[in-house]
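User: I'm putting together notes for a lab meeting next week and I want to include a structural view of one of the chains we've been expressing. I don't have a solved structure, so I'd like a prediction I can at least talk through. The sequence is below, exactly as it appears in our construct file.
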Amino acid sequence: MNNLRKSNIRKLPKGTFDTLIIGGGINGAVAAAALAAKGVKVALIDKGDFAGFTSSNSSNLAWGGIKYLESYEYGLVNKLCKSRNHLMRSYPSTVKEIRFLTSIQKGFRFPPAFIYMGTLLYWVMGRLFTKMPNYLTGGKIKSLENVVNTQNVTGGFEYSDAYLQDNDARFVFNFIRSSMSYGCIAANYVESLGSTRKDDTWVTKAKDGITGEEFEITSKVLINAAGPFVDPLNDLNEEKTDHHHVFSKGIHLIVDKVTDSNKVLTFFADDGRLFFVIPMGPKTCIGTTDTQVENPYAHVTEADRQFVLDNVNKLLALDKPLTKDDVIAERCGVRPLAIKGTGGKADWVQLSRKHAIDQNAQHKYMSIFGGKLTDCINVGDEVAGIVKEFGIDLPYADFKWYGEPDDTVRDEFFHRAKLMNFDALTPTTSSEPLTSRFWRRYGRNAINMLEAIRENPNKAELLIENSEYLRVEIEHAAQREMVTKLEDFLRRRSKISLVVRQEDILAAPGLREACEILFGNEAEAKLQEYITSVRKDVSPAEDVIA
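Assistant: Thanks for the context. Below is the predicted structure for the 546-residue chain, given as structure tokens.
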């Protein structure tokens, strides 16, 4: 059914691309979007799904790096605050200001008033772009947020940063979708088997992970944006770099909403690291851990899970403690941290998420290390500048490649939505009006989706309860979002599998119909593939959703 993917894979071996990007996480996605919009002939492949690894396991926060003030990285904080503000201006419906309510326990290494002074400095470094911080007594914290356990709290404060209204993977995919709209040939589940230099070009042997077919992609420039897999890919391509990665594992647990206030509750966990209770629509996301691991294939351990549960139960005054049974879903990923030199030793606490781009101008090869969502626009612009230095023409070098459509498009969508009383169709389980959600997720494409619903009201049906996805959205995903496996849709194009329990997804009467929309005659096979992957204890032969 996935005609877009099949069509793009047929195009990959044809001709010579200006640039091949390997990796479809946030770094590869913004590189593709920036280059394609500026007129560069771009190809992008990922051995898994787009945003399939680190970029779909973040805290969904776009923040200016307040924690780096403690390590005196004022330049980094200044840059990240500037990037955060730019992101908020560019994506007003997606990257929004949110208040962080921080509680300081008695005996903490700094008194609350001292840390509050740091939030004032942070606010000033953020160009006063957000609301001013407030100092709070323990009693004031309790009155503002009754769920916080203030028995051992000596004070705290409230300050602002930003968060992603939807989810990180969706945000990343919209850059991929944008790059394809500008002519990028992108395909997921296509693995690089290695690249070699031939006649001043790169020849990359690639393999379709679905069919097993192998083919070659020729490009003038090669960009290694493989996230946590940058180092092994460089080894495969025999490219030496100044930087390499070390990994920090972070996990989050998602539970039913613990408070109705739309604030991030911030604490310092038992190990002294920041610990968040983050709103996630109808749910709450709790974490994170920060554990050094040797390789990217991290998983949630019993100790990780218990660490998060122990801390949240101690820090919140819940009616009853959260247990493993309350966990709806788990997120686990590694933060690739850029470190210079060949050794693996570094002051773990001092390592930051700043990115580094190593380049070999002679070979027209670059590797992107580290990075985070907050700084993504800078990464895209920086990559475009380096590609130009490599001698690749950027016909539309000054074209603005990021941001939401302009106000005329927005006003047209909201006017049409109002005329058809679109918000009246909002399901009772939805956490926001349909107009807001459609504009944020689909931009100008939302106008066509309105027309589809106007012509056929059945397209406004909710197929999976509590999913916040209408039939028309699933049809749009089938046509334009390169959904190759059911997990791609449930976990990354949407956040259904993060906010709906697995057993409820599998029991949903509309799941099979959603599969038919997404995969056509492959629907049953794709459904059983998903069941096998998430329910190892269930035989694929069992019809668990009949």
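A couple of points you could mention at the meeting. DSSP finds 18 helices and 18 strands in the chain. The longest strand covers residues 243-256.

User: Perfect, that's what I needed.
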